[in-house]
Predict the 3D structure of the following.
Amino acid sequence: MIPVEPEVVYQLVGAVLDRELRSNMTDEQKIRKINDWIRWTIRPSTTTSASESLLAGAYKALNDKNGDSRVVAALAEVMLTRAEIKNLPIVRIPDAEKEHHWNLVNPDDKGWYHFDAFPNGLGLGGGSVSMFTDSDAKDFTRRIQQARDGIKDYYTYNPELYPEIVKE
């Protein structure tokens, strides 16, 4: 595990947020900006980071400019939290073939949505990639399974562990 001082991570994240966000932005606009910054800045990696703490994962992403879904979700969690947006980490069901981590966001208390800044090569079509519903997640999971021959549980999670997510 990388030893990292919280103040260093918060300073790095603060510098990004100061450049990217404006005080008059809505939570949804901030979420979109954070998503775009991560997607355009952090390259996806398949390196596993199972032992990384939240701050170590965020630091790795900021320092190395790459990371797996756990590292990207950690960076997103720190950025969203520092931007004062309600968020929670979420993880694919434990018996899936591969791990996948993403976040939930609740902009302006409008309800919980999925947020996944880890690039996966497939978009959600006309919907937002920074906030998507449970129906979108199920459709996206089906499309990934068809396109990737086998990843059948992409956004499959245990709903008992999380608040209710906006369905449609």
Observations:
- The longest strand covers residues 86-91.
- The first helix runs from residue 6 to 20.
- The helical segments are 6-20, 27-41, 54-64, 69-82, 134-148.
